[in-house]
Amino acid sequence: MSPRDGVARTVARLALCGFLIAAGVSHLTVARSAFLAQVPAWVPLEPDAVVLLSGVAEIALGVLGLVARRRHRSIVGILIALFFLAIFPGNIAQFVTRTDSFGLDTDVARGIRLLFQPALVAWAVFAFGVLRPRTR
How far is residue 21's CA from residue 67's CA, in Å, rounded to a whole number? Predict the structure, then answer.
């Protein structure tokens, strides 16, 4: 890995962790009602509990990503990628049910948002070196 790759991964990791922490805090505070609108009706938990739990999970994953030792970062990256996959059905439900939230008030806007979820997974995989060959 070149020094430039290391810097790019570090910047990507720190930015992703900041994004996760900010998103998690917004789940618990200012954007709580917007996140409530995205909880699919088929989820067998109280919607507010889902929003709170997912917010806490985002904060925890963001902090974990900041403090994880280098040898454990790929595991954290996998956990973050899995989290993004786990919440994807909520984004799909928002599209299918045409739920307005976060200013996503058209099918096109909600459809474009669906494209960002794979990008978030890729961001986690890159930032945490999940696919990087391991050396001893």
Answer: 13
Query: Mind listing the pLDDT tens digit for each residue in 1-38?
Result: 566 678 999 999 999 999 999 999 999 999 999 899 88
Amino acid at 132: R
Tokens of 15: 């930015």
**Token code pair at residue 104:** 């996503």
**DSSP code at position 62:** H
Question: 108: closest CA among 93, 117, 95?
Answer: 95
| CA neighbor of 132 nearest in space, from 71, 82, 61 | 71
Indicate the SS3 state at residue 134.
coil
Q: At what angle do helices 47-67 and 3-28 cross, to 10 degrees?
A: 150
Whole-model pTM: value is 0.90
How far apart (Å, rounded) are the C-alpha atoms in residues 13 and 93? 29
Tens digits of per-residue pLDDT, 73-116?
Answer: 999 999 999 999 999 998 898 899 998 888 888 999 999 989 99
Tell me which residue of 126, 107, 101, 112 sits closest to 47, measured CA to CA: 101
3-state secondary structure of 7: helix
